[in-house]
Amino acid sequence: MINIFMDDCRKRPEGFTLARTTEECLLLLRECEVNILSLDYDMGPEDYSGDEVARRIVLEGLYPREIYLHTSSSAGRKAMYELLYSAVPAGTVLHNGPPGNELLAEIAAGVTAI
């Protein structure tokens, strides 16, 4: 089981697999069992935005155990949250913001429950 951090420019937090493009993120979601997914919205001019990943999660049923929205775009966070909120199954927790420092420290130390 892996944790995915999708972002085109931020540094990968310890304990996460980095996806620099929406296609990399979708490939990981399709191929791996995912515990935590942290999504950015603005993925650069040559890529789709994070709401395309949110849309694919819903359409293809690619739900991880938890989803965080770490984007600095308030409009992007709102768009992704609204896409996901109405469709999230019982086994997935959706957070309308980034993972906290305590959780990031636990993941880095390898002590989070999977």
Describe the structure.
The chain has about 110 residues and is α/β, with parallel strands linked by helices. The chain has a single domain (about 1-110), classed as Response regulator (Rossmann fold, 3-Layer(aba) Sandwich). The chain is about 35% helix and about 20% strand. Helix 2 packs parallel to helix 3 (about 75-85). This is Cyclic-phosphate processing Receiver domain-containing protein. It comes from Paenibacillus typhae. InterPro entries: cREC_REC. Pfam families: cREC_REC.
So how many helices?
4
Strands, total number:
5
Q: Just name the CATH architecture.
A: 3-Layer(aba) Sandwich
Low-pLDDT regions: none
Count structural domains: 1
Given helix and strand content, the structural type is alpha/beta
Q: How many whole angstroms does the radius of gyration measure?
A: 13 Å
Walk across the major sheet and give the strand order: 2-1-3-4-5
Range of helix content: 25-40%
Please give the CATH class: Alpha Beta
Give the SSE string: EEHEHEHEH
Shape: globular
What does the main sheet amount to? Answer: 5 strands, parallel
- Report strand %: 15-25%
- Can you tell me the CATH superfamily? Response regulator
Mean pLDDT: 94
Itemize the secondary structure elements and their pairings.
Layout: E1 2-6, E2 17-19, H1 22-31, E3 34-39, H2 50-60, E4 66-69, H3 74-85, E5 93-95, H4 101-109
Parallel strand pairs: 1-2, 1-3, 3-4, 4-5
Helix pairs in contact: 1-2, 2-3
